[in-house]
Amino acid sequence: MVVTPVQLTDLIVAVAAEHADALGRLTAAVELSGQLDELGDHLIGHFVDEARRSGASWTDIGESIGVTKQAAQKRFVPKESADFTPAAFDRYTDRARRVVVLARHHARFSARIGTEHLLLGLLDESGGLAAKTIAQLEAAEGTTRLTVLKRLDPTVHERPDPQPFSTHCKKALELAVRASLRLGHRFVGTEHVLLGLLAEHDGTAAAALADTGVTREAAEAHVVREIDDAISRAQRRAPRGA
Asked: Which residues contact 58 (CB under 8 A, 6 or more apart)?
C-alpha cells in the first residue's frame, strides 16, 4: 500500500492561506481538486508508458488498473484526431499557442499535423526558450531545421477540415503537459513542447533532434537552468519589501 505524500490537512492549510473569505476558499478548493485529478491522470499515464516500455501487454496493464484491455487502450493510446478544443490549450503561453498555429501552417500540404510540423513551429518561434535551447545544443547552427525539412513527406495531400493531429503529435502534446507538471510549472511553454517532442521517441521530430545532437536530458537541464536564472533575476529586480 502506497501512503500518499500529500495530506488533506496540508491542502486545507494551503487553500486557507491564500484566501480570506469562505467562498474564495471554496472556489480555490474546486480549482485545486481539478489540478489534483490531472496530476493523478498523468501519474498513471507515466507508469503505463513505463510498463509498455518494459514489455507489458495491454491485457496486463488493464488487469493492473482494474479495467479491460480495450478500456486501457482507449484511455491511454492516442488516436489520430482533431479533437483538441481551445480549452485544451488554456495553460499554454502565447508563444506555445503560436507554435501550434505555425505547425498547422507547415502542415498545409499534409493530411495531418505531425511532430515534424510542431518542431518547425518551435524553430519559427525564435524568441521562445525551445528555439533557444535547440540553438544551444544542436551540432551546428540551423542543422535541426535542415534535418527535419529533409524528413518531410514531399507528397502534396489535400488538407482535410478539420485537420487531425497524428498519434505521435497528440502524444507529444500530452507529454508536454506532463513535463510542465513534473517540473512544477503552472504553464505550458515552448520549452515543455520541446520536451514532449523529445519524450515521444517514435516521432519524426525526436529522430531529427537526435540526428543533430539534441537530447532530452541536455534539453531539460538547459530549460531548468534558464528558468531558474530568470526567476533569480526577477527576484533581484523586485523592490525591497515587495
From this structure: 69, 72, 73
